[in-house]
Amino acid sequence: MKTYHLFYFFLLLTIPVQACDLCGCSNGGSFFGILPQGHRGFMGVRYRYNSYHSHLNSLNLSSHEQFRTAELWGRFYPAKRLQVMAFVPYQFSRQTILKTGETIPLRGLSDVTALAHYNLINTFMDDSVVHTVNHSLLVGGGVKLPTGRYRYDENSLSDVANPNFQLGTGSTDWIGNLIYTARYKNWGMNADVSYRVTSTNPNGYRFGNRLNTSASVFYLASMGSKSIMPNAGVFVEQAGHDIRSGEVNKQTGGYATYLNLGAELYLNKLNLGVSYRKPVSQFLSEGELQANAQLTTHITFLF
Amino acid sequence: MITNSVVRIFLLALVTSATFVSCKKTEEDVIDPDTKNSVTVEFENRVGDQKLILGTTPYKNASGESFSLTALNYFVSNISLKNENGTVQKFPNQYFLVKQTDAKSKLITLKDVPSGNYTEMSFMIGVDSLKSVSPVTERTGVLDPTSYGDDGMYWSWNSGYIFLKIEGTSVAVPKTVNANQNFAIHVGGYGGGWNGSAKTVNNLRTITVPLTTKATVRANIAPEVHLFVDALKIFDGPNKLSLATTNSVHSPAVATPVAENYKTMFQVDHVHNNKQ
């Protein structure tokens, strides 16, 4: 163990005091979108594409990061009012240096998240009264585990020496969230708030705490056993500054607001979904980072 | 009822956070020349488009010679900043030794810079003649000739400080020159004479680089100028230097082509003007 500690110590020594760690951070993870409704468990695969332009003002470092994530996700009900969710993402991403055209791949298991929610309010099942408007409020939280690789070699030409372009964050983070849904006839609204409290990873790096908020409206059109649910909404992400070896890196964190358009298709036990997010207002990494449009699709089996 | 109030608080929080992040900052920018702040200059050494990593990492020069580097050191002095009105702010009597082995040495902090929009930076590679001939008691810190240990930056036998040195290994270096095929290129020569001997050539070079993004010093903004230093230019500058022939430079007289080359190796990559 002692040798490991020494190793980290030397690793820290070789890291420059000040480095430009700009890069699209894909580590947000565990967002929900519009969850398949009903008191049913599910399992499926989500595919997410998002990209960033980094170091916008740099002659040599300007880059384009493309994050592609395939994610297994599932929901289970161990008890009536308790839902447990798990997210196992696998990334196949890459960074392209715009000046040279050089691309650096990033592939592997990312950070796994597990969440549990208690259904605090649910007028669908709380009483037998027929409500005009039905509410459901889920309160819960969970943990994001450091299952993705986060170590990089400062002395390698092929590694991206940037904590933001790794498969994981290296830290065990705690997440708290609320998911609220209201339904009136075929119309509904969904809102969720998720706050992530980070911790320092063994490299001495700590990502800023992160707040994700989203709100959307949807309409459910049914045709027999099939139904389609178009939806639209707003998604906001905010993150604090990262801390490297005790020093705050101001060129990190920020906010981005996205408009969201999507549709869910339900075919018996099959649920297909697509969602497109376009940034409308953002200020990330002191304006040195630009988030581009994102696309999420999923195929999920209800049981 | 509890249901409703929980829902209301929740929605309120949602709306508040959405409003908060969509607010635009519209502050008026006034330059108050009485306020000061610091400017940090980062020297990031590179080899072409690659990171500079000392040791065995292979690089290639324009002569097609493969090489690796074991040392890159240089003195930076006589820094000045020019603002958009043409006023030059000098930083006299400040000497810095940038060493690839020392991450901290690659960050130079200029203190008490008056608020302004700076568009150009100049600096000298080396130690000017006045300082070079000043009494040893005035040459302290990185200029202390006894402070270098095995990593010498001073020619005690003739011509003062080594302004820049680059060392490494290359198969292009003939084994008849160095059995281990090491090369060492040391540049110095401030144009003076040592103990009354003949004057050397003057290999001091001043580099002027434009700040493509202005460095906007304010009471609450301490800009960071990020320089890229391309060591490959030491071989592939205006003069094409081959390691087969230029592999052992230890006197001012033969170092001038090297100084002409490294004069071209500095580039401002970007400037950060972050509010504190």
TrEMBL record, chain A:
Key words of the record: Signal
Signal peptide: 1-19
Name of the protein: Transporter
Native source species: Spirosoma profusum
From TrEMBL, chain B:
InterPro entries linked: MbnP-like_dom (IPR046863)
Superkingdom of origin: Bacteria
Copper-binding protein MbnP-like domain span: 37-250
Protein name as annotated: Copper-binding protein MbnP-like domain-containing protein
